[in-house]
Structure formats: C-alpha cells, structure tokens
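W.,

You were right to be curious about this one. When I first looked at the sequence I had no strong expectations either way, so I just let the prediction run and decided to look at it fresh. Below is the sequence, 259 residues in total, followed by the output.
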Amino acid sequence: MAGMPWIALPLGALTGVVMGALGGGGAILTIPVLIYVLGQSPHEATTSSLVIVGLSALAATIGHLRAGRVRVADAAILAVVGSVGTYAGSAASAALDQRILLVLLAALLAVVAALMLRPTPVGVGSEPVSAPVGGASHWLRISALATGLGALTGFFGVGGGFAIVPALTLVLGYPMATAVGTSLLVITLNSATAFLSRLGQGVELDGPLLVTFTVGAILGSVLGGYAGRRTSPAVLKRSFATLLFLVAAYMLVSAIVHR
C-alpha cells in the first residue's frame, strides 16, 4: 500500500468530514481504515491517527475560533490536566497485545454508537452555561473529565471528541456549537501530547501515506464543518452511529477469526 498512498486522500477526507461535522469521531474511523484498508498494525495505526486527527482538528478549530465558539481556558485545562492520563494510557497501550487492543477498540466503538443513538434531553446544550465559569465546581468537573479523556486518548490513539462533546453539553451545559468548537481545540492539544508520549516507543510511520491521509482529513474537516452547520444533528448522529456499529462488528469478527 505504500506504493499507492493516493487512496489515503479520499479515505482521509471521509474521516475529516465526520470530525468537522460532529466535532469529533475522526479517529474512531481513522484507526479501522488504517488497519483494515491500508494495512497498518494496530499500534502503528493508533500512533498515525494522532498526527492525522490532531492536524485536521487544528484546521477545523480555526473557523470556530474566529466565530467565538471556543472556550480556550476550559480547553487548556482539559488538555493540561488530561496529559497525566494521556501518558498513562499510552504506556498501557504499548504493553498490550495487539489483538486485545482491537477487541477493546471494537467495544469502544459499539459503546460510542449506542450513546450517540440516545435521545438528547430537551434543553441540553441549547442554553448558555448555567454553572459560573471559574467557580470551584466548574473547574473540578473539568479536571475530572480531563483525566478520563486523556487516558482514552493515550490508550486508543483517539482525540476523544466523541466523548468531549457529550460531556461538555451534558456535564457543563455548553451550547452545542460551543461544545463542538471547544472539543476540536481539546482534540488538537490531546493528540499532540499523546503523540509526544509515543515517540520513544519505537513505532515507525509511513511518511507518504501519513501526509496524504492528513491532507485529505484537513480538507474533509473544513468541508464537514460547512456541511454540519446545514444538516440536522440528529441525522448526522444516526448515520455515524450506524457506521460505527458496522465497523465494530467487523473488527470483532476479524479479531476472532485471526486468533
């Protein structure tokens, strides 16, 4: 596959569209694509995804920053406090058997899909944040979220956007648009931290494929952000959840067959 990295361009665009439209979820698709379509090992794929998702999230964040839909201080706390969990998660992932990692990743996909199909309570994420920003309760909740999301990022090589957006809306009461913008900045910072923590683990990356996939993901994230503002969030979530269920089922069957 290294001889024809061009196929990574449309594949990257697909994952970028998902991230730009939903504020996360790009790595959830990126990793299976890198493993099953582009032939990378699970550890190589989870490391490559940190570069791809981090850069494409950064590209998508710029527009949200200009529109004032990013809470930079909260994003910084989520990333800084979460770095502890990120390093711990990266170490645990490196020590784990790759087949077990695949099974756990498939289970994660299924859980995420189920959560996305749950109806959003009326009013959640549609009103301004009710808790006083800067209050002790606000920062404690952000710190607790940061630790868990950081571990998720380090272990699975995902930015955590699929978990950050629901957490910001349900736990902190963010409006949906602000949750998406803030999530993208957190993904950018978390991905950078997790990638740095993996540099010493001896993983070799396919440069041409990585660049091509990343370019596609960046272009897709910009397009996804545009489409996401003009498409029903409910339709996007249902479609994405269905895709996740199918990918999770394929990964589980593959892991069992190749035991």
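Here's what jumped out at me. The chain has one domain: 8-257. And, maybe more interesting for your project: DSSP finds ten helices and no strands in the chain.

Coffee later to discuss?

I.
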